[in-house]
Amino acid sequence: MRPHLQYTDNGKLRHFLSIEGLQKETLQQILTTADKFTQFGQRDIKKLPLLRGHTVVNLFFENSSRTRTTFEIAAKRLSADVINLNPGTSSTSKGETLLDTVNILEAMHTDLFVIRHAKSGVAELIARHVPDHVHIINAGDGQHAHPTQAMLDMFTIRQYKGPFNELRVAIVGDILHSRVARSQIHALNTLGVHEIRVVAPNSLLPSQVERLGVHAYNDLKQGLEGVDVVMMLRLQKERMHNAYIPSEQEYFNLYGLTTESLAAAAEDAIIMHPGPINRGLEISSVVADGPRSVILPQVTNGIAVRMAVMAMVLGGEGNG
Amino acid sequence: MRPHLQYTDNGKLRHFLSIEGLQKETLQQILTTADKFTQFGQRDIKKLPLLRGHTVVNLFFENSSRTRTTFEIAAKRLSADVINLNPGTSSTSKGETLLDTVNILEAMHTDLFVIRHAKSGVAELIARHVPDHVHIINAGDGQHAHPTQAMLDMFTIRQYKGPFNELRVAIVGDILHSRVARSQIHALNTLGVHEIRVVAPNSLLPSQVERLGVHAYNDLKQGLEGVDVVMMLRLQKERMHNAYIPSEQEYFNLYGLTTESLAAAAEDAIIMHPGPINRGLEISSVVADGPRSVILPQVTNGIAVRMAVMAMVLGGEGNG
Amino acid sequence: MRPHLQYTDNGKLRHFLSIEGLQKETLQQILTTADKFTQFGQRDIKKLPLLRGHTVVNLFFENSSRTRTTFEIAAKRLSADVINLNPGTSSTSKGETLLDTVNILEAMHTDLFVIRHAKSGVAELIARHVPDHVHIINAGDGQHAHPTQAMLDMFTIRQYKGPFNELRVAIVGDILHSRVARSQIHALNTLGVHEIRVVAPNSLLPSQVERLGVHAYNDLKQGLEGVDVVMMLRLQKERMHNAYIPSEQEYFNLYGLTTESLAAAAEDAIIMHPGPINRGLEISSVVADGPRSVILPQVTNGIAVRMAVMAMVLGGEGNG
Q1: Which of B86, B122, C162, C297 is the most buried (most CB within 10 A)?
Q2: What are the residues of chain B with a beta carbon less than 8 Å away from any beta carbon of chain A?
Q3: Which residues of C19-50 are buried (b: 16+ CB within 10 A; e: fewer)?
């Protein structure tokens, strides 16, 4: 990624494509801005006029009603108009190219595209292409990045565990294919976490993964030893047909988070998961619904963090 | 149903799941509140700020763009933000459980779920589960209940025929499988109608139907004799393949509402139908479009009644 | 079309179904009203309260997320509530008739239906049927008309080329099946353009096309000779299977707009296309993306023109 694609010439956040390439100050600004919106989410009337008259387009080439809903709620709470598009089912199937679709939408004077696509790099490709008044938020591109997910995770860690520089964090599961893990690792490193571990069978670890600034473990209990934060990843069931893992049961036995395997972590460790959960595959229900799980607070924080990023790229909010 | 699941501790309407278990005063309050919104629907600017800053989620596991549209219009006229979800096509197909889906949505600080589901009891299951700030409206669950439909019917009867205690009402069609009929019978009984009749072949009547407080008829003309209100039900065509009725033509001959069969009813009887109509199957076009049909006023009243229920569960409206 | 179906008794625009039957003054009023909204689209806060409290229903029997999006954005910028319906997938599949669907929606006190349908005449059929307070905009019906597309084209021509009465315009492509071409020809004639040419193989020209007030050409270069405006049509690929054209390559060789074929037109001719573009079939990328292409301004103008038509039929805007 070009170093400054995500910033304007005078250092304002213009696009939000990837944690990689962002300064520590920007991540901290997102967390601080989201703080304000979190308090706001508890009010009775959850409506701010910040983005009134702006049009947010949820452009989900890859379907995800859950992530789309969080962006839709965040945008509406900021009083934006929201257009939901799932171009897979319409114009691109008429043979229109990706950039034609984007050109058309920006010609309608829309202001912000929230883009999800099954191919890595699509959000960046579009960001390179759009004129100054259009902003791009990456809502997940292939196996590359899912930066708003990573930032809601950082927000949740800070909320429950305090300063990053004293924390040990383990990310468990399919690191190899996970855009979530990639963004989490960049965010944890940028914010100066004490130690990041990744835990997975070798078949689900990128080669030379340690270059990302992490320690790799094949054994779950060793990987969880003493950590303050356990970040589980969702296992795509289709991986099993591709021979990355032997069977659901065997995977759960070795890498599933249960009361037993969790015992290795610090006593007050929190459990995170980006959802949706495969109960009994990567996590047991007892742990997912237990007192140390912060899976639902992650969802709540996701609204505030997405409001913060939208407000920062579109308005002056949090820029100063 | 637990007697007080639908009320808060101090007697306010919290959820709207089923007419069964509601007090007469609550039904009357819905009718009175809807009165105000009916007048409002005729104004040029149909927008009230009552639910501004609230988020209504239309969670339609069973698809129905018509019912969904009435709730969407009602919520938007009250200035709520509306999120439409059809989870059948997304997260639950990823293996997420029903309650996980609901947990996620309530974690987003949404306030009201309008739920339709093909299985009886789902709205109640969810209502038992959600925290205090979340409210549930049942938009139809299996063969159990469709209480907003019943209340718009009550509103329409009151509008055209006056006090309930002098009225004879016939419900005609597939009583056995109809959530609409079940809710109508509870509402009519609660509001103290003089007499309720159900008219259907035995194959489409619940066993011991008279326990519901109705008189059963197999003969249409006898059932309609002297009634003030004829409430037709929609016949699900798939019933025919299941041998509940012999053939479309034979069903129409015996139970179809025509000018001829209608002659048995009171001269000023009104004709109701929840829609969509099967013309020529349960009702003739002449009757459906005739001067005694109040099918379209039912639709109009449906908006006002749904606004009333939303305002009552979410706000102070109609609660005193 | 009945001459005055589109006007109220005192000459106000009531429906917008077809350019045919509209007075020159009405078309000019649309252009003037859209002028105001174009300037507005460049503002930071793109929200006007003109249609606040009104409900616009996008009733797209034929799917088109692109055209639907332009109407949705236009309506929301005027502060209307918008309901998107694709009835092909719901009630009409339950056996409800077209007019039942419309009756139901108008009973909900909705104000404006934007209708797209694969059959010619549907928008008019519905307009004849609805009560006074309901307004219809035709967003494309079969091979009949697409009047908002034609008006955004007129707006774009006026913007770039000035007075109509001095202009030569060529429409190139599948004239025979095109609702766009039909509406363009009526609009250009009504606004008094100097000359209209249609360019296509005979298999894609209506018989006796000259009766529409155009000159027909089979040869592209002859047809483009000296024209000020080149309006390309989208070629439906399914036409090829129906033997209207021999092959994609052969069609492009004869009728594709390229730098070479465009050389016949006036030096400052503009290039238009309603989208989506089939690159390399009816137009080369070099021309579509070149300096004389106004394809994206057409999209931008489409929002302003649709806002103008909505404001005129629903409000007093532009009337009087």
Answers
A1: B122
A2: 52-55, 81, 83, 85-87, 89-91, 94-97, 100, 103-105, 107-110
A3: bbbbeeebbebbbebbbebbebbeeeebbbeb
- Among C52, C81, C85, the residue with its CB nearest the CB of B65 is C85
Chains with ≥3 CB–CB distances under 8 Å to B:
A, C
Residue A97 tokens, joined: 């190219």
Contact B276 C91 (CB under 8 A): yes
Residue A175 contacts residue A205 (beta carbons within 8 Å): yes
Q: Which CATH class is domain A24-145+300-314?
A: alpha beta
Q: Which residues contact B206 (CB under 8 A, 6 or more apart)?
A: B175, B176, B212
Query: By a Cβ cutoff of 8 Å, what residues of chain A touch chain B?
Result: 41-47, 63-66, 69-70, 72-73, 76-77, 237, 275-279, 296-297, 299-300, 302-303
Print pLDDT tens along chain A (320 aa).
455 799 999 899 999 999 999 999 999 999 999 999 998 777 777 889 999 999 999 999 998 889 999 999 999 999 999 999 988 644 455 556 888 889 999 999 999 999 999 999 999 999 999 999 999 999 999 999 999 999 999 999 999 998 999 999 999 999 999 999 999 999 999 999 999 999 999 999 999 999 999 999 999 999 999 999 999 999 987 766 667 888 888 999 999 999 999 999 999 999 999 998 999 999 999 999 999 999 999 999 999 999 999 999 998 644 43
Please tell me the distance from the alpha carbon of residue A35 to that of residue C212, in angstroms, as a whole number: 65
Dig out the tokens for A162 from the structure: 């305090």
The hierarchical CATH code for the domain A147-295 is 3.40.50.1370
Domain with CATH 3.40.50.1370 in chain B: 24-146+300-314, 147-295
A108 and C69 within 8 Å at the Cβ level: the answer is yes
Chains that touch A (3 or more CB pairs under 8 A): B, C
Task: Please determine, looking at this structure, whether the domain spanning C147-298 carries the CATH number 3.40.50.1370.
Answer: yes
Rounded distance, CA B212 to CA B209, Å? 6
Length of chain B equals 320
Nearest 10 degrees: Cα torsion B285, B287, B293, B298? -40
Q: Which two tokens stand for residue A116?
A: 């999800």
Phi, psi of A123 (to 5 degrees): -60, -40
Structure tokens given for A154: 């950082």
Q: Do A279 and B110 touch (CB under 8 A)?
A: no
d(CA B278, CA A251): 53
Strands (E), chain C: 55-60, 81-85, 112-117, 135-141, 168-172, 195-199, 215-217, 229-232, 270-272
Q: For B24-146+300-314, which CATH class?
A: alpha beta
